[in-house]
Specification:
single chain; 395 residues; alpha/beta; Rossmann fold; 6-stranded mixed β-sheet; 13 helices; 14 strands; globular
């Protein structure tokens, strides 16, 4: 797989912050050598975060994010600042762009305090040094640059690459649960909500990782699982299913064959698997009038039989017997105030990076609201959660 094929959620997210007219967009364009952002002397030219996935040497595959000025003013400015703060949730490395002609201001210090509180790696890029008679001294976290002349831009990229490498960890979705040469069956239902002509991202990622690990992978629909298993000379090492088909797959998979779901694998891959167990248990205690938030990390056209807005509410009604009210969110939208909810049910988060997924779990924990993901919720409602977690228990 080429570096350019790395999905956005798996790329380090490098976000550029700063006051209006500090030169954030100019620095972004200089670093990427592209006109990603509109540049102007007018305050507040960048009105929304601008995000681009790209391969950037020597950094490799990354997501670059330009943000509105965090010192914007007025009612509209406050909305822009909020959008900037939302970017912090998914930032892996921050670049604070400072106008070197005015130095680090109180507003810059406030943002630095937040970066330190979040334990985010950061670099202060002191821009516009071409306007100074004497270049400021560099340090571990500070670097003099000029977006106009290109001075210091190469060093900035080298420092960013170093921060990315220092945080590099080998993360596996499933390969550590099987051995080379094992046979693994992927159950991929093709129904009215399946995207035409392709399989969804978590299925792609699991398939590719298993192939890289030299496993034999068989794919089938849930209606064909029994026949597929009968054709195998030996039992598979693992059956992985789309969570929507959990009930049938559990019935058709022999008890001595390990079974789990894509969503449960992503629960441990993206964040805190054990922290989601409380959310699964909380489903048993839902009562009439309780409110549940169902949240997805991606944005897609809702279709007939949509899992989030149709199937999950139906299954919850049958499981709890309670009349529950629902709110639904998708994409980058996730409430800061979760106090109205009894439970948060979240998708596997394949389109969110680890930082954003863990932010959402921390928000729920701080509010005292149990959170569970789709796969664990569906397994709980079908009485097979222990079985679905068993392949992960040794870890």
């Amino acid at each position: 797989m080429s570096l350019n094929s790395t999905v956005s959620a798996e790329r380090p997210h490098i976000a550029f912050f700063g006051r209006r007219n500090a030169g954030k967009s100019s620095v972004v364009n200089a670093v990427t050598n592209q006109k990603i952002s509109v540049v102007s002397d007018t305050l507040g030219t960048t009105t929304d975060p601008v995000q681009k996935a790209m391969e950037l040497l020597p950094l490799g595959p990354v997501v670059i994010i330009d943000t509105p000025g965090f010192d914007d003013e007025g009612a509209l400015g406050a909305l822009r600042v909020e959008r900037t703060r939302e970017v912090l949730r998914k930032t892996d490395i921050a670049v604070l762009v400072v106008d070197s002609t005015s130095g680090i201001t109180d507003a810059d210090e406030a943002l630095l305090s937040e970066l330190r509180a979040r334990k985010l790696p950061f670099i202060i890029a002191k821009n516009k040094t071409d306007l100074l008679s004497e270049k400021p001294a560099d340090s571990e976290h500070e670097l003099s640059v000029s977006a106009l002349t290109g001075e210091g831009i190469g060093e900035l990229k080298e420092r960013l690459a170093h921060l990315i490498k220092s945080d590099s960890r080998e993360k596996l979705i499933v390969a550590d649960l099987v051995q080379e040469g094992d046979a693994v069956v992927l159950v991929i239902p093709i129904d009215e909500s399946a995207p035409k002509g392709r399989i969804i991202l978590p299925q792609q990622q699991v398939l590719r990782e298993l192939l890289d690990h030299h496993c034999t992978v068989l794919c089938c629909q849930d209606t064909e699982l029994s026949a597929t298993l009968d054709k195998l000379a030996e039992k598979p090492a693992l059956v992985i299913t789309d969570s929507q088909a959990f009930k049938r797959v559990a019935q058709d998979t022999p008890a001595d064959v390990p079974m789990t779901s894509f969503s449960i694998l992503f629960a441990r891959y993206k964040g805190n698997l054990s922290g989601l167990l409380a959310g699964a248990d909380a489903l048993k205690n839902l009562k009439d009038g309780d409110k549940v938030l169902i949240s997805e990390g991606c944005t897609h056209h809702r279709q007939c039989g949509d899992i989030g807005t149709v199937k999950l509410p139906s299954w919850l009604k049958a499981y709890s017997g309670a009349d529950i009210t629902y709110d639904f969110t998708s994409g980058g939208t996730f409430p800061d105030d979760l106090s109205p909810y009894k439970v948060v049910i979240h998708c596997g988060g394949c389109m969110l990076n680890e930082k954003e997924m863990q932010h959402r779990q921390r928000t729920a924990k701080a509010a005292g609201v149990p959170m569970v993901n789709y796969g664990m919720a569906i397994a709980q409602m079908n009485g097979i959660l222990d079985r679905a977690l068993e392949p992960l228990n040794p870890l």
